[in-house]
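Thread: Newbie trying to understand structure tokens

Hi all, I'm a second-year student working on a class project, and my supervisor (Dr. K.) asked me to get a predicted structure for one chain before our next meeting. I've only ever worked with sequences, so writing a 3D structure as a token string is new to me. If someone could post the tokens and maybe explain what I'm looking at, I'd be very grateful. Here's the chain:
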Amino acid sequence: MAITLRAGGRRVGRTRVRESYNKREVLAGYLFIAPWIVGFLIFTVISMSWSLGLSFTHFDLASNSATAAGLDNYKLIFDDPKVLTSLFNTFVYAIMAVPLELAFAMVLALLLNGMVRGSGVFRTIFYLPKMTPHVATASVFLLLLNGNVGAINQFLGFFGINGPQWLTDPHWVRPSIVMMTLWGAAGSMVILLAALQNVPRELYEASEVDGANRWQQFWRITLPMISPAVFFLVIVNTIAALQVFDQAYLLFYRDANGSAPDAALFFGVYLFQQAFQQFNFGLAAAMAWLLFVIILIITLIQMKIGNKLVFYGGGRND
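---
Reply by user tm_fold:
Sure, no problem. This is what the structure looks like when written as tokens:
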């Protein structure tokens, strides 16, 4: 039972009890998130700080020693033609993959949102590919994309179309990796589906009274109302596309003795090669920080442009 005292016209006792209660809440909150804080400090902050220092050194793995290199590693980045090739491939892949994945996920989400019965079953079916391990997915696509006996080219053959050499033709290497990326579009689909289910039904009913068709409803109601989710996915998927590694490595570099076309050399793959095959850890760290800066700049540009286009309920954030 709180005892209320007055000092200078204010209630002191109840205020002290409330402050004590708030402190306990704050302490409990910090205890709950303590594992995440510890993990973030060890595996993110400390690791990034160590890699930044490593990028200015020549690190010798055999002797576990490092010598100062100044800006040599950063100069090597721009002198190495493979770095520019890998950056070009990564940007082209991102430009192709992000819009296609978003469009594919949107189609799936609209189909599920329009279903009255069985949506839960189809939602599970559509999400299963996302849960498939990347190694298993790559093995399937190696069979599907085989230029001679692959299922995709055999299907095209029924229509008299000679399918390309997906895994060897430089013009089709990046599209083949994009196709493998679309296999996991269900992650974006779930987010879009949740956003679609939060669009008020009254807006569609009012537009039907005004004579709007489905296409007009999508552009005038659906897309503006789910634009925050779309904006979020554009940023997240762009960051993921610029860090692409699994798809390219599993399709083209899993066999260490095999040869891969230059079109399959992505920045993340080349960084991996420098770090764990050539053991140029200083150069690899410098490449990682270059990618970090590139992603940061692109994300800031997206934030600047996107905030003017996204509808946040009260209107656009102009």
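A couple of things are worth pointing out once you decode it. The chain is about 70% helix and 5% strand. The longest helix spans residues 13-54. Feel free to ask follow-ups in this thread.
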